[in-house]
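Quick one: co-fold with phosphoenolpyruvate.
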Amino acid sequence: MSVTRKTLIAGNWKMNGSAAMAESLVGDVLTGMPDQDGLQLLVLPPFPYLAQVILQCQSHSLMVGAQDLSAEANGAFTGDVSASMLLDCGASHVLVGHSERRELHSEDDQQVAAKFKAALDAGLIPILCVGETLEQRDSGLAEAVIHRQLDAVLEMVSIQGFASAIIAYEPVWAIGTGKTARPDQAQEIHALIRSRLEAQDATIAGSIQILYGGSMKPQNAAELLACEDIDGGLIGGAALQAQDFLAIAAAA
Ligand code: PEP
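Sure, here it is.
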């Protein structure tokens, strides 16, 4: 594919940190950020620190997003946060369907698709996470699982919904485990995702960013990011150390 896509390195902090840690981590990232054309950096702090991080990033190119959202617009949904609230406080991106939400909160494909649509409708950029478990991979079901997760969203928003969205391939067996997909394994699934979209719209498929996530670290980032269809990384553990996060960005 000859399209040049920007590389996005996104840091998912998960439920880690404190106000002080957020301030110092973001300060260090802002200080060390490479000013490189074609490279974008995004941090995804927990909800309580979003506003302070957004304030700290004002007039910088570091983007800030959230880790989840409600599919509902407003109302009696205690504990939930809507897309318009995230937009209101200045977030630009939001994760949708992270495997920890699918597993620990039993989010199914339809709920994930509804969240994706809610994000799009509000003007946020959804980052759709897809990925298979080890059991599914070992049973030869990886492709079917990725297609099912992708198709649920395609059915809800059509291919046009992917014109301003991002996809993250995160094999569940590689998240937080220290096991990373080999570059050829990751590239195979990234190409599969792109070709699923290509069947409906080649332009959107050619320009969408598809990130790899799952124990990406400075030591393995370069070879993963060198793959043709890997347009960046969704980083968990390594995003909590500015040095590691920046080293991954440098590898890009
Ligand atoms: C993640 O949480 O999305 C993730 C990729 O985590 P880790 O990098 O720690 O595997």
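If it helps, Strands lie at 7-12, 39-44, 63-66, 93-96, 125-130, 166-169, 209-213, 232-235.
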